[in-house]
Amino acid sequence: MVCSNALFHGPALPSLQLDHTPQFAHVTSSAGYSSMRTSAIACQPHRLQTAVQGSRTELLMLCRSKTSLEAGLPHADGFPPKPRNWRERVRQQVRGLVSIAFDAATAPFIAILFGRIRRHQHRLRPKRIILVRHGLSEGNVDRSSYEHQPDSQIRLTERGFSQGKAAGQQIRKLIGDESVRFFFSPYLRTTQTLLAILEAFHGRDILVTSEPRLREQDFGNFQDATSMEEVFQERQRFGRFYYRFPNGEAGTDVYDRVADFWSTLYAFMERPRSPSETIENYVLVTHGLLMRIFCMCYFRWTVKEFEQVWNPSNCEIWVLEKDGANGFRHMGRWRASPFGGSLMPIAFGKNKREPVHEHMRRPVHARLVRPGTPDAYEGLMLEHLRVPGPEHEATPRERQQMRDLEIAAGDGDVKDEQAGPKRREQ
């Protein structure tokens, strides 16, 4: 066994003397006492370091046990010991060949096992994830409500309660008697919306979970209506996703906590505590921005695509439905009022009526690009890569400097390759 660093503490020692033999180390001081004496330690005196701090002296010893030497375990410097004779060398080679053969023989079975595990996890995922924005609140009607009430305590209006009940009927119509679990923001208006929705599930046992990560973006503390108008205008100029509100959050902060919530959601989906806890529908009662960022995280929308998606209306329902082995697909939106109707595309583009890009309705983990071709960055999926170049054209002198840098970089690569073997020899 490789011995961990042995740290010796003691009073101020004016001088230290190290007396060592092949089998033991004897540390003494001018004070005339022994700090350690044992035959179980083989020390490396060239690795001793002494650190003096105030009135204390710390002797840091890098060592390894004698038994580890005999067992052929790695040295303290991390390199394995050299074989002592040809028999050990043969044993090491045989062990390596057996390990390679075992890995090759078991690899197909491991691949099959992981494939089955993934298919099993996919079967455990719900049929749908349903996102619902809260109903009409007092803050939606009168912005001055935020001047004297915390955002978390803004209540629903009477119309907001009616919208919540209509949303509950829509959800019940969609899922029927299938199992369902609710996650909701702990804000008052979302909690009230949840209770209005649950009226459509009268007499059923429903799982509900309060989830603070689904709360609204923090716009600051008490918010003056006049100054907030200027803040929102500034956000439009700066960019909605990156703008940080005074004493509040940026969209990037919300993205981080929603991405973290996704990992929790996957854990609920794929590792239920019992077969009876396998849920067919997850409903998230939350806020408009959270609904958009939730989809941005899952579908991998770019910031530019996110900023073209409009905020859902009060109690608007977004439906993500399982699409075979391709994960979830965004099926569209349902308006809470009037009741009935079918799913419609989400509001997108400058006039809210542009069709949402097809690739935004399914998860896209990476986008293919082929640099050097005429149409390398064409197409909707690569629109975020079409950015402007330098603001001014380079002068002849700047072009020459850039060419010199490229040549120097190329020469440096060649020199590194040539110096590589020498460095390895050292």
UniProtKB/TrEMBL annotation:
Domain of life: Eukaryota
Region: Disordered, residue numbers: 387-426
Species: Chrysotila carterae
Matches recorded under Pfam families: His_Phos_1
Xref: SMART domains: PGAM
Protein name: Uncharacterized protein
